[in-house]
Amino acid sequence: MTTAPSAPIPRQQLAQLNTLRDGPGWLRLMSQLGLIVGAGVIWRFETLPLPLRLVGLWVSGIGLATCFAGLHECCHRTAFRSKPLNDAAAWLMGLLSFYNATFYRRYHQWHHRYTHQPGLDPELEDPVPTSLVAYLLEISGWNWWTGKLRGYGRLLCGDLSTYPYLNADVRPQVRRSVRLQFLVYVLLAAVSLLDGNGLLFWNWLLPLAVGQPFLRLLLLAEHTGCAYSSDGLANTRTTLTIAPVRWLMWNMPFHAEHHLYPSMPFHALPAAHRWIGPRLQHLDSGYLAVHAQLLPRLAELGQPA
Hints:
Number of domains: 1
Order of helices and strands: HHHHHHHHHHEHHHEH
Oligomer: single chain
Radius of gyration: 19 Å
Helix content: 55-70%
Distance between the termini: 20 Å
Strand order of the largest sheet: 1-2
Strand content: under 5%
Number of helices: 14
Mean pLDDT: 95
């Protein structure tokens, strides 16, 4: 299990930082949905210049892909004070970003319990790229799409008992949630075909594919090149980045802080960084700097034997 440093944040300040509030979650959620809709309208507005429409496509895609960050926060049940509201928002953002919130919450709990520990952390089941070709496939989103299709096939029809983080009580919930999610997709596909508007493809699949490389670049930086250990100061990276990226990612770039204090809401992570930052082994200024550091070391990044 990931270990936290000994009391780097004073008790009184920690209690304040751990206080749940609804306002920041609503603001972040509604602004992201507004960005997706607004940029999507620009993308489909045929009288606009093509370069502007392509910008709309890209921005809409980034908005869709980074709904993953809101899903992640709501799966921790720290975006809002209400558990049902967290769960509903997580399910919606999972629908938009092609994740299933019911499954992901259990999967992610296991990731926090065994962060970056080979054989235990389920995130390490997806191999770290150790060559330029593997890196480009990862960044393109190809590995994500193919892995998602295989994973959903298993969740829909396969044996869920092989997932250590899904107990017998949870498996039926996961199966129902995944089937409901795909029912929504099927209904949207039917509407798209019947109306001939291609809604599902033009407003979701294509933008999501365009936005995935942006998300892959950010997520690859979270643990890649960090220690394969239970030391929370060494197994996770915090990346200092620009405000729009922090906004879209619900402050997930403060990733080491989040792993050390997973019950802390996203809006408190920048304040926590003041205490945590100086003690981190992996603190980088910008995602380009992280990838410039990782690329020459790709061959070394595999898991220890």
